[in-house]
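Q: I'm building a small set of examples for a reading group on sequence design. Run inverse folding on the following structure and report the sequence directly after it, with nothing in between.
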């Protein structure tokens, strides 16, 4: 808990303030402890990201932009605004019952709604405590209630907590245009790691050229930053390189080489299409510092995770038709390992040409050398072999083999499947 409260010190005052402005219970400011341990870079196997653990679709539904440059699910301010809207929506949908609203935040509105309707049909109670819900959801609300109790009386429970100041930590500054984050940190006279921890929504070395242009800056350096920024012309806020187009170049290959996007190159050079001619010169936005300086940028976080792997490093280039399942079988590792090494979720789409990293000799989990538990799974409406395999981090071929079924046959709701699931997985 001490580590989590220390991590939360940058954010929790502002989270509580935003919740209060939305007329929400302040106890909800503790929910990121349950969701992500207040880690804005948290990423789950279900593709949930950020302090509030929004999945991509829900994030978009509540206004969180997600693109190559920026992921609003990790933006401290924007994701909290979205979470507040989502809480108010769920609170209204469940007639003011906060326990049901929180259960729906965890398990999904449909799951909780069906559980309520099932109990109502059977003449049973419809409170959170009466419902048959997924195991994780049954623990979710008690976790938050217990957390609120412990934090209200830490001495009683002998839990060491870091003091968190009841005052703003940061200010939001609209910089008005794209800016290199290393340069922004220099203007604010702070370490770039601190800038990324306050602005974890930015995936790359700079802010999104098309906006959002908001930066969170420590309040103690806000005036200094704004003064220095005002003296810096917009055209000097990012570095530029002149590139002469070679035969065979495309905007995509040039963008990859310079860690930018086709859209950014087109906009900078006022190109109407993706067609380019050899010999012409392009102006390319590029990072001012070495890659390692941008320690919390998405590609650098991936590299750190990959460098921590054990065993012999293997690079695999994705081919058309490849899947994580198939690649993991070829490399004798688990899907979960392969996804983790490459900062992906097991269900993410692969792009041909992408290079994946794996480690031979890693303790791959197989049916024979892992602790498994046998699960009897009842097929639900909308289920597919892919969805079930993804949910339990197992392979489609194994499901077919364990149940002696043909891949071409459709699954039927109510059908029972036998699965052998890793006991250590969070299913």
């Amino acid at each position: 808990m001490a580590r989590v409260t220390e991590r939360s010190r940058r954010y929790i005052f502002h989270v509580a303030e935003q919740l209060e402005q939305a007329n929400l219970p302040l106890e909800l400011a503790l929910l990121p402890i349950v969701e992500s341990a207040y880690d804005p870079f948290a990423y789950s196997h279900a593709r949930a990201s950020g302090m509030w653990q929004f999945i991509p679709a829900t994030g978009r539904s509540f206004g969180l932009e997600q693109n190559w440059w920026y992921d609003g699910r990790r933006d401290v301010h924007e994701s909290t605004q979205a979470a507040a809207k989502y809480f108010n929506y769920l609170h209204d949908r469940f007639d003011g019952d906060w326990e049901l609203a929180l259960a729906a935040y965890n398990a999904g509105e449909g799951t909780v709604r069906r559980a309520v309707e099932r109990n109502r049909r059977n003449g049973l109670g419809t409170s959170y405590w009466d419902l048959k819900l997924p195991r994780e959801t049954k623990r979710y609300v008690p976790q938050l209630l217990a957390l609120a109790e412990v934090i209200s009386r830490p001495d009683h429970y002998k839990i060491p907590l870091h003091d968190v100041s009841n005052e703003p930590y940061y200010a939001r500054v609209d910089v008005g245009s794209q800016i290199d984050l290393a340069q922004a940190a220099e203007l604010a006279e702070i370490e770039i790691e601190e800038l990324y921890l306050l602005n974890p929504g930015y995936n790359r070395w700079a802010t999104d050229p098309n906006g959002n242009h908001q930066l969170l800056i420590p309040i103690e350096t806000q005036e200094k930053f704004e003064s220095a920024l005002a003296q810096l012309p917009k055209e000097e806020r990012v570095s530029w390189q002149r590139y002469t187009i070679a035969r065979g170049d495309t905007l995509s290959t040039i963008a990859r080489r310079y860690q930018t996007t086709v859209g950014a190159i087109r906009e900078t050079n006022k190109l109407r299409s993706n067609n380019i001619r050899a010999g012409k010169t392009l102006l390319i936005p590029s990072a001012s510092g070495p890659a390692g300086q941008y320690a919390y940028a998405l590609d650098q976080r991936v590299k750190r995770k990959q460098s921590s792997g054990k065993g012999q490093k293997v690079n695999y280039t994705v081919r058309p038709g490849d899947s994580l399942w198939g690649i993991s079988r070829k490399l004798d590792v688990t899907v979960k390992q392969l996804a983790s090494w490459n900062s992906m979720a097991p269900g993410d789409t692969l792009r041909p040409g992408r290079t994946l990293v794996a480690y031979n000799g890693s303790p791959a989990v197989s049916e024979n050398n892992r602790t498994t538990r046998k699960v009897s799974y009842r097929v639900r409406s909308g289920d597919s072999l892919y969805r079930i395999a993804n949910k339990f981090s197992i392979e489609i071929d194994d499901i077919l083999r364990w149940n002696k079924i043909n891949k071409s046959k459709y699954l039927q709701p109510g059908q029972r499947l036998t699965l052998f699931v890793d006991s250590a997985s969070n299913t």
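The chain has a mean pLDDT of 84.
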